[in-house]
Recover the amino acids of this structure.
């Protein structure tokens, strides 16, 4: 029996213990947003640290941050020639309220049918444990041919406010060839999924001002430019009737989709009916020439997130408002970046704003998009592992949202992330009755084992 | 000495008494918005009624309404062949707060230089009294050749909520050939002014809805039409780069300005510098091909009065809003009307709204525009009177705002109004230190006398 075969057998033989361990981990109330759970957060970090020590990793540390601690460990015995991987995860969970909608104790870990119900079961204690279990299986069956560092934080559910500082401070410690981030999920129990790209974000406020005080729309209406009409016109002009964004040069650094990638994305089991059902929109709509999956994953957007001006109460006030503003954000795709689109937005305003109004663009937040080479050794090691377990090629997904840690690792450590995870779309993340599909989770344990072997080949 | 000459002499001889009467009238605290002044309101109405009786009018009534009473009187002894005029006015005044900014007691009527300072001095107790004084001067010097009805309300400063019902109920009583409304003003002490047109109003809310709940802009951004981007685009498209409103047929019933009227309007001492100073706007702007005076008085508008959607708090929330709305109103000119532009707005939305969003137009309030023939006997009787007093032809003004009573009289009584008044732009209407320029007021008394004679010729 090869080491790989014996490691898989070890994992199968230990499934009952894996489940017991998971229930134990889930019983710790690591609700990061609630100060009452501060002691639980420390207990959760200790639980992870002890678990890592128990599987035989010597260098394990619970490291303080400005908020909840980070668990760090490293296993570098594979040697300088072997690749080094950071496994990212978080031990914190969402609050459980409203409690009365839970069918069982959210911290008890209750099995019903093939599922385990508990807060954090899917997001993401089971995912953290699956990666630890895989390392354990290799340690017990011939050792690892890859160097491993774990970075398990306790503040993901509150926006990771201290993580960038932590990574910046510990750049050398975290040096690696790539990161594995099992905080994504699968599109279905029979659809192994790899998320290889995330959109970035550039968030602005656009302010427009005309007269220096609100005017009577009868006395002055028609004689000065209404800044709100102007704001609306400017926003309206930022996109043409084909859904193309008109900011100058906006698509210059957008990577085109090639035929191969479009074919991959077409395999995703997401169709327009899915979008209609989940949004309640009367119809889908977007950039001409692209499918909905491509629009969300691989094409940039420009959305008004909020707009305000003048009188918005009941009834009619005949005011010509002095000013108005809109919050406008763009989801970015490789190789756009927030600074670049900021300049493009400024240029658009310079070129298009009526000179009879004043305007200002304020940049609020931003984050780079990220993409990993689907043909890299790292992605392929995971793809092959998933195919070995499920018997089908995984689908490759671009995520429309942003995962800040992925962009931070790209910027601060210079590495790509491979995103995966063994949660399912109906796992009730952040909602009552969060659950984990146990057969899928067990397969996920196996997939990580195969990945570790694949990396060493 | 002709009756006209002796009436003018009578007015000059009685200036001191006119001033004493005015101060007496001003001392009554007729603040219509304040329930504490209810007794003062009744006292004010009584004061007007007694004054009318005192000059010799027999039929004077204080008539109840749903709010403050109306003073009505009629003098019909000029006979069936003579014209009948309704003189409109109001005895209520604005609140006086902030009191500490007044340099003298707002109800004391204090003379400084050539001005009388008091709340209501210009708006409009002096104007009401000037018209009564003129009638008195004729009664004392050969009688009136015109039939007169006074309609003096007590709720103008709170939007005349009961006036339309009152007029509707008393249509026969108020039957007349035209109305004189001295609640307008002059553009300067040497610039007698006649306002012969008012813009109407059509006020709407436009609602646009896309998804049936707010969406995550990362997960769905790009796949459904953002209803706020769409709302902005629709508003932006309602006006072209020349300031022309694009609603279908919008200008079809707009009366063109002929050369004669444009020449009249060009005489108005209002220039772009005046607009810049009073608005603080960086520049004037409006419909191409028209002056600012023409844009405000004789051309219709389309102004966003308010707009709201999504997240407008501090910071960045990456929401794709489910819906948004704007308050949009149009100032209308003859012969537009609110129903017509409502249909045009609906048609614009039907033709332009992206079919992937739902929309609704809600009509809030509306009022017809009005215009009086500058060459009518009524307008000319006033124009000639003003020229007789000031020695210069009056300027003819179109007012950009709306005076609801003018449209109501047009609709309910079928008569035009002639608007004038002897207040000045720096009279601090609705503000502390309201004042009346006494020499201008005395000339106004004389002008009304001349008008009454002119009408009888």
């Amino acid at each position: 029996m090869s080491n790989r075969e014996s490691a898989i057998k070890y994992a199968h033989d230990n499934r009952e213990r894996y489940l017991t361990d998971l229930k134990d981990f889930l019983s710790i109330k690591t609700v990061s947003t609630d100060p009452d759970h501060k002691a639980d957060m420390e207990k959760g970090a200790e639980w992870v640290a002890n678990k890592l020590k128990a599987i035989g990793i010597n260098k394990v540390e619970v490291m303080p941050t400005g908020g909840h601690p980070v668990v760090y460990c490293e296993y570098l015995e594979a040697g300088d020639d072997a690749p080094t991987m950071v496994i990212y995860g978080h031990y914190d969970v969402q609050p459980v309220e409203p409690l009365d909608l839970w069918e069982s104790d959210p911290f008890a870990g209750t099995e019903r049918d093939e599922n385990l119900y508990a807060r954090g079961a899917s997001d993401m204690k089971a995912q953290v444990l699956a990666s630890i279990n895989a390392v354990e299986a290799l340690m017990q069956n011939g050792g690892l041919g890859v160097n491993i560092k774990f970075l398990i934080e306790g503040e993901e559910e509150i926006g990771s406010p201290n993580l960038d500082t932590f990574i910046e401070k510990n750049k050398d410690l975290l040096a690696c060839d790539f990161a594995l981030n099992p905080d994504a999920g699968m599109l279905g129990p029979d659809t192994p999924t790899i998320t290889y790209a995330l959109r970035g974000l550039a968030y602005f406020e656009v302010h427009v001002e005309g007269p220096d005080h609100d005017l009577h729309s009868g006395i002055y209406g028609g004689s000065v430019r209404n800044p709100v009409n102007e704001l609306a016109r400017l926003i309206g002009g930022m996109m043409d009737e084909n859904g193309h964004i008109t900011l100058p040069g906006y698509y210059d650094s957008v990577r085109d989709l090639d035929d191969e990638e479009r074919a991959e994305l077409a395999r995703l089991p997401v169709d327009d009916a899915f979008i209609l059902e989940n949004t309640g929109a009367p119809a889908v709509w977007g950039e001409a020439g692209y499918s909905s999956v491509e629009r969300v994953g691989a094409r940039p957007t420009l959305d008004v997130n909020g707009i305000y001006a003048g009188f918005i109460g009941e009834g009619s006030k005949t005011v010509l408002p002095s000013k108005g503003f809109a919050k406008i954000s763009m989801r970015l795709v490789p190789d756009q970046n927030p600074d670049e689109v900021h300049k493009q937005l400024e240029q658009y305003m310079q070129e298009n704003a009526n000179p009879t109004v004043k305007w200002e663009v304020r940049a609020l937040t931003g984050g780079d998009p990220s993409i990993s080479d689907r043909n890299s050794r790292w992605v392929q090691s995971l793809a092959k592992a998933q195919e070995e377990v499920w018997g089908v090629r995984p689908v490759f997904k671009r995520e429309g949202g942003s995962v800040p840690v992925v962009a931070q690792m790209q910027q601060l450590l210079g590495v790509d992330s491979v995103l995966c995870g063994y949660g399912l779309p109906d796992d009730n993340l952040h909602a009552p009755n969060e659950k984990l599909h146990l057969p899928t989770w067990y397969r996920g344990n196996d997939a990580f084992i195969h990945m570790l072997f694949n990396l060493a080949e």
About this structure: The first strand of chain A starts at residue 59 and ends at 63.
